Amino acid sequence: MLRSIRRYSPRSLSGCSGLAGLAFLPVLLMLVAAVSTSATAAAKKSNACGGKDLLAELHENDPGAVADVLAAASQVANEGAILWRVSRGGIADSYLFGTVHMTDERVTDLSKRVRTAIEGARVVALEVADVGPSALATAIQQSPTLLMFEDGRRLDLLISPEAFKTVKKQLEAARLPSAFAEHFKPWVISMVMAVTDCERQRISNGKPVVDMKIAEIARSKNIPVVGLETVEAQLAAAASVPMEEQVAMLRSSLTLAERAEDLRETILQLYLSRKIGAALPLQKLLAQRSGMDGVTFKGFKSLMVDGRNRTMRTRALPLIAEGNVFIAVGALHLVGEKGLVALLRNAGYQVDPIE
Description:
Elements: H1 2-5, E1 12-17, E2 30-34, H2 41-45, H3 54-61, H4 63-74, E3 83-88, E4 91-99, H5 105-108, H6 112-119, E5 123-126, H7 133-142, H8 161-173, H9 186-193, H10 197-204, H11 210-220, E6 225-227, H12 231-239, H13 243-255, H14 260-272, H15 279-289, H16 298-322, E7 325-330, H17 340-346, E8 350-353
Parallel strand pairs: 4-7, 5-6, 5-7
Antiparallel strand pairs: 1-2, 3-4, 3-8
Helix pairs in contact: 3-4, 4-15, 9-13
């Protein structure tokens, strides 16, 4: 069975978290696998994805809940910027940039400041240097148990029969083998659902997500592109999230399966308005609205965000010490007391918001 699964390699890997996209589930965790698939009729007609901002909708029905989300976001350290200058005396300035793993031109049309920083860099560091299908396929072949149950557990026994039917539909839409649906771990399904039909079609048509766009610019200027993580490490981090949280996040995603485009637009609007700190509070609110009170996602934040932040910091510091490096990672990795901005300051650098 695993041999059959390995034939299905995603077209590209978008580090979503995240909480895919920014490290948000099903939009905001850097680690989203966008699989090649046939276009839906709607996607064929239009090259632009549509959707409504769920926060705006929620504000009409429950303004107090939205106010709570935004109030929580305002308390998150280093909220409000996606481009930061990293400096210390005697070393050329470096830059830290928060991405969102989407193809939308509102984020891939990078600002002049960001492009200038990329084009003038000595080296560009991304979460993963090689986001091609062969790298991901190799990682899956080497560690299939990160994606699949092999210990007797089954996804169809962890969620309701109705929810499992939705899982199979989502896999079929992504051209993944639904016949093996019960063997996939919950985080895999959540990541597949984080990419809408329209977004899959745009990627299939060659539209880059922000991280790929940055790599393209760097390579066009013969600037080396390196990775702060490996594909295998990202898969292992996602698989290490406690099973109860994986199941809870999947259930939350499934309840909003028909509103995938709206979720994508909501995260996009948070990113554009620099409200990165609202990602996790919004995820908790959506989980509560799905009937899962008490879900905190502490394991997800500890393993998929905080733990990876420390790894990125450790691997970024030698690059920064040489000066003039452009670092681009999912935006959720920048914020908070354990985010990269704080970690670099703790390492003795001055880190200032630019954009």
